[in-house]
Design a protein that fits this description.
Chains A, B: Pfam families: RGP. Chains A, B: Belongs to the RGP family. Chains A, B: Keywords: Cell wall biogenesis/degradation, Golgi apparatus. The structure is a homodimer of 354-residue chains. Chain A is an alpha/beta fold and 354 residues long. Chain A has a single domain, classed as Spore Coat Polysaccharide Biosynthesis Protein SpsA, Chain A (Alpha-Beta Complex), CATH 3.90.550. Chain A has ten helices and nine strands. In chain A, strands 1, 2, 3, 4, 5, 6, 7, 8 and 9 form a nine-stranded mixed β-sheet that branches. In chain A, helix 1 (23-33) links the parallel strand 1 (11-17) and strand 2. In chain A, helix 7 packs parallel to helix 8 (273-296), helix 7 (239-254) crosses helix 9 and helix 9 runs antiparallel to helix 10 (326-353). The longest helix of chain A has 28 residues, at 326-353. The first copy, chain A, is globular and about 55 Å long. The interface between A and B is large, with 58 and 59 residues.
Chain lengths: 354, 354
């Protein structure tokens, strides 16, 4: 699987800590994580000190670190709950980011072998993507496969991959209504494939288990879409769905790819879906407006960087979505502010490096 | 897997016979094929009588049957080689068609169980498709799975499926250059998934192992694109790639879906790829024009049936592709003539039924 050479200094693993005791999480991932640098961002709503086992290279960021960068608490960019990880995306200066929820453990493949999720994400990101024609045998750059008959040769070099979306075994990433309706349903099917999601097709990106090329699409990984009653369970959030569609629109515009499939992680049980229903319906309802918006979003030729694209999208959100629900006004503001933050932090880091 | 009830009288299995002796092929498929009616079309270039074992319900169509329907031999619709199966599509009056190349045998799944390719195609065709938003856990209508968080509820009922494209184990469907470059490469990876190829994404449909809803898309399964040096090996043909893109454009326009993935069939060794190179390069080169044509094809609101759509596409082929290569002139003519044939044969069959 890992057909690429990973340089340790090109990768940051970003963990949003929603629990104080990370011991069992970190021990479960030790074999996979220990050679890389970790950025651990403590949910600013979480009081107390994190418990992290020894033998890892990491930096921890807490509420006070966040405030020192973001400044006033009246900012529309909010790093609480699952969104705390976005602060890690901001302060990293590595090319590749891998982020995995702290209720996940390594999964096993169909042969019973432990899956190295980091290696698979990096392979996905370092090998080309093929968004402009669908290859029926999935990833043509995987060992033992190729482009099938009829695939144009001019498209076979592919394009750079911006985002790698991994999947989940056991507890699947359903919304609260689905989870409440089918409380016993678990995902046990290991599908041994990675594919490029075709250009102009939107997908529900889950932030549970992702990797991305920070240089290509980092500014689009924006914590913009915060529900009024956002909770601390995945099914009570849609921030990742929103930023995922931002990335997809930008990749389509700039000519990068988004992959979905391997690697899997194992998701452990958490939360009460029925209790969450009252929060999650808000997200479910808003998707009916959000999806057509991103599907029809077309960026101008003047937008040549991810930053440009996010700013253009923020203006479109303001114009087309803000009249529908106040949640969109804040999303638009957060997108603009995020790009400002990104530029400030990036220039600080490059001054520091120089 | 087979979660749907298949009515035997709704299905025709169409076999293009490129060999006289079908004994081992039919015996290999007996458990899967024997409850259905078979339409066996003998390649008109193949002299002699077919050898077909007992215990099947079938009709055989030969060169003289083809001529009695198509009339003069100056027709631009040609049913020789792999294209002979299209005659079966024309004379069937069933809702669903399954077609499998006569060099394939049933494959085994990852648990070693024989795959019922017909049941899987019918399941794919009878359950909804989801072309307007990508579901990261693949087919949401499969037992044990669902739509993931963020998937709009308004799109969850899905749309009708027009075409089901199955895959191949052992000899994969590469073109002659790829096959010649990697003569030892075999596909051994069983990917346990069916997915809807998103709207507006084109794919290289292979005719080796397909099922389709004849009522929805039958007229688009057109034997239009015949290479000057077309041969009797799959890698020397592109007729299926062309008709597959016709179907995909039509499904996108009329709001149907195209699925890809399961079922697999096992493809046996045949032919010499290096020998075929001189023929296949023609197809490979033409794809560079064909793919952008179909990608940019937009049908008018007036085109409300598959027949209408094929006629509109034929006009566009004439206008945009004919100047590039004479092979396209014949393709355009064949598309128009095919729709005429389809209407004549269909009305004859319905008169016969009445």
């Amino acid at each position: 699987m890992a057909q690429v050479n990973i340089r340790d200094d090109e990768v940051d693993i970003v963990i949003g800590a929603l629990h104080l005791d990370l011991t069992s999480f970190m021990e479960d991932w030790r074999a996979v994580f220990s050679r890389f640098h970790l950025i651990i961002v403590q949910d600013p709503d979480l009081k107390g000190d994190l418990k992290i086992p020894g033998g890892f290279s990491f930096d921890v960021y807490t509420k006070s670190d966040i405030e020192s960068v973001v400044g006033s608490s009246s900012s529309s960019v909010v790093f609480s709950g699952y969104s705390c990880r976005y602060f890690g995306y901001l302060v990293s200066h590595k090319k590749y980011i891998i982020s995995i929820d702290d209720d996940c453990t390594p999964a096993k493949d169909d042969k019973g072998e432990l899956i190295d999720a980091v290696a698979q994400h990096i392979t996905n990101l370092m090998t080309p993507a093929t968004p402009f024609f669908f290859n029926t045998l999935y990833d043509p750059f995987r060992k033992g496969t190729d482009f099938v008959r009829g695939y144009p040769f001019s498209l076979r070099s592919g394009v750079q991959c911006g985002l790698s979306c991994g999947l989940w075994l056991n507890l699947a990433d359903y919304d609260a209504p689905t989870q409440a309706l089918k409380p016993g349903q678990r995902n046990s099917r290991f599908v041994d494939a990675v594919l490029t999601v075709p250009a102009r097709a939107m997908l529900p990106v889950s932030g549970i288990n992702i990797g991305f090329d920070r240089e290509l699409v980092g500014p689009a990984m924006v914590p913009a879409f915060r529900l009024a009653k956002e909770g601390k369970f995945r099914w009570e959030t849609v921030e990742d769905i929103w930023s995922g569609m931002c990335v997809k629109v930008i990749c389509d515009h700039l000519g990068y790819g988004v992959k979905s499939g391997l690697p899997y992680v194992w998701r452990n049980e958490r939360g009460n879906a029925v209790e969450s229903l009252k929060k999650e319906w808000e997200g479910v309802k808003l998707m009916e407006e959000v999806v057509p918006f991103f599907q029809s979003m077309r960026l101008s030729q003047g937008a040549v960087t991810a930053e440009d694209c996010v700013i253009e999208m923020a203006a479109a959100v303001k114009e087309r979505l803000e009249p529908l629900d106040p949640v969109f006004a804040r999303a638009s503001e957060a997108m603009v502010e995020w790009v400002k933050l990104w530029k400030v932090v990036t220039s600080r880091l490059s001054n520091f490096a120089a």
